[in-house]
């Protein structure tokens, strides 16, 4: 079995940046600058499933705000 086929038993955290973009990060490591823990931890699959539920608009926050301002 190759390394890529082995089960991933690490714990992950759901993180979000100031542009409201989501990602996952290893739960036992310090977050990179500009990313914030969202309080959701678990397997890679469960964290990605949570992101699928909450990240419904993939556009960065700055783009959404600009487009909302143009519509006004």
TrEMBL record:
Residues 3-53 form the MbtH-like domain. InterPro entries: MbtH-like_dom, MbtH-like_sf, MLP_fam. It holds the Pfam family MbtH. It comes from the Bacteria. This is MbtH family protein.
């Amino acid at each position: 079995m190759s390394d890529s086929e082995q089960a991933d038993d690490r714990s992950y955290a759901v993180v979000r940046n100031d542009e409201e973009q989501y990602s996952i990060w290893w739960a036992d490591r310090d977050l990179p600058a500009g990313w914030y823990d969202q309080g959701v931890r678990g397997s890679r699959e469960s964290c990605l499933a949570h992101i699928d539920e909450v990240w419904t608009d993939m556009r960065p926050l700055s783009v959404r705000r600009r487009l909302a301002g143009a519509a006004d």
